[in-house]
Amino acid sequence: MTIEQFIQTLPKVELHVHLEGAIRPETLLKLARRHHVALPADSLEGLKQWYVFRDFPHFAEVYQTLSKCLRTVDDIELITRDFLRGQAEQNIRHTEATFTALTHYRNYGLPFDQQLAAINRAREWGERELNTSLLVILDIPREYAAPEEALQLVQWLAAEQPAGVAALGLGGYEVGFPVEKYQAAFELAYQTGLPAILHAGETAGPASIWSALQVGRSVRIGHGVRCLEDAALVQYLRDQQIPLEVCPSSNVCLRVVKDLASHPLPQLLAEGLYVTINTDDPPMFNTTLNEEFAKIVRQFGLTRDDLQQFVLNALCAARLPNERKLKLEKELIENFAQRA
Question: For tag attachment on the chain, is the N or C end more exposed, with fewer CB atoms within 10 Å?
Answer without folding.
Answer: C
